[in-house]
UniProtKB/TrEMBL annotation:
Pfam families per the UniProt record, alphabetical: PMD
UniProt biased composition (Basic and acidic residues): 322-337
Protein name: Aminotransferase-like plant mobile domain-containing protein
Region (Disordered), start-end ranges: 322-356
Length: 356
């Protein structure tokens, strides 16, 4: 990502729900060995990491507090109609490329075409710059794909009115994309992974203190910005085998189930992020266009004195409910007798119901 956005577009990013995540700026350096060690413990069947401490996963709460993205609102779905991407690009950005590859454009083109506005810029120029900046964040940081330098113009259809943009659950779309990418990375022939890997890395550092570098800087919001500062890795294992060994040996005793209850951390989180604390404790489909990933937070409920494990009785109840409520998002599968199906499915029509 480029540096922090211009203050001239703060009000537009705020309306769209992207101001907090925009303040992350250039972000932090990724640790590929830590990410690889986590992927090795990921299970696509349940969308959880299987560790000696039990099942754990990245939740909507983590997305909300780590990135500052809303997880409450309407699901982000594809328009039922095909679009003329050249016309969309020109209408919303005021510029057009010579070559739009299947609706995707180069992120570098956005940076070159839309320089930071100055005090003499018009309102229309600022709006277009804000749209380009959000599109760059989505394609280059939040929901990047394996191309690494392309972003689809379909997101632009959500940026016509920033007030409407802010009504969508962008956080659930980011989490659905990350779930999908981690599931895809489990395939033997897969060598790359997309999605918001900074979220994955920051989640691990808040949960596994023995893998966390030392940062002599106060917490800031969004919480992921903690790793933007100079960090000391003295005494921190950096080899892949050592990380695997630490996860096996120390996660059961030292895994932090509730890191955000630390008063020092809660003090920097804006009050509005605690207004609806139960929105991540439900089973909901996480939808990102045609991607549907089940967010089963009941699998990681706290049991006093024990890890977050799914009770067998609760598991059977979920399976029963799943069979009773078949819909296009949860078609009958041959593996229904095994457990809940969490594989991505195709949705032919957009969903408009809000998720809470």
């Amino acid at each position: 990502m480029s540096d922090h956005p211009s203050p001239l577009i703060e009000n537009y990013l705020g309306e769209a729900g992207f101001w907090h995540v925009a303040t992350i700026g250039r972000g932090c350096k990724l640790d590929p060995k830590l990410i690889s060690a986590l992927i090795k413990r990921w299970r696509p069947e349940t969308h959880t990491f299987h560790l000696p401490c039990g099942e754990c996963t990245i939740t909507l709460e983590d997305v909300l507090l780590q990135l500052g993205l809303s997880v409450d609102g309407y699901v982000v779905t594809r328009s039922a109609q095909s679009a003329d991407w050249g016309a969309v690009c020109y209408e919303l950005l005021g510029a057009i490329l010579d070559n739009i590859n299947g609706g995707r454009i180069e992120i570098g083109w956005l940076r070159d075409t839309f320089p930071e506005p100055d005090n003499d810029s018009t309102e229309l120029e600022r709006i277009r710059y804000a749209r380009a900046y959000i599109l760059e964040m989505i394609g280059g940081y939040l929901m990047l794909d394996l191309s690494r330098n392309l972003v689809h113009l379909r997101w632009m259809l959500k940026f016509v009115d920033f007030r409407v943009t802010g009504d969508f659950s962008w956080g659930s779309a980011v989490l659905a994309t990350l779930y999908k990418e981690m599931c895809g990375a489990m395939r033997p022939n897969k060598a790359k992974i997309g999605g918001c890997l900074s979220l994955l890395q920051s989640w691990a550092r808040f949960r596994f203190p023995f893998l966390c570098p030392r940062v002599d800087h106060p917490y800031t919001f969004p919480l992921i910005t903690r790793w933007n500062h100079l960090a000391s890795y003295v005494g921190i294992s950096t080899s892949l085998k050592d990380i695997w060994l630490l996860l096996d040996q120390r996660s059961k005793a030292q895994f932090q189930w509730t890191p955000y209850e630390d008063p020092v951390i809660r003090a920097v989180i804006p009050d509005e992020f605690f207004q609806n604390p139960n929105i991540w404790h439900v089973n909901v489909p996480l939808v990102n266009y045609a991607i549907v990933e089940m967010h089963q937070s009941d699998r990681v409920l706290r049991i006093p004195g024990k890890p977050y494990l799914l009770l067998e009785e609760e598991r059977r109840r979920q399976i029963h409910i799943q069979r009773e409520r078949r819909d296009p998002l949860n078609p009958i599968r041959r593996d229904d007798d095994v457990g809940l199906s969490t594989a991505p499915t195709q949705s032919s029509s957009p969903l408009i119901a809000p998720i809470q």
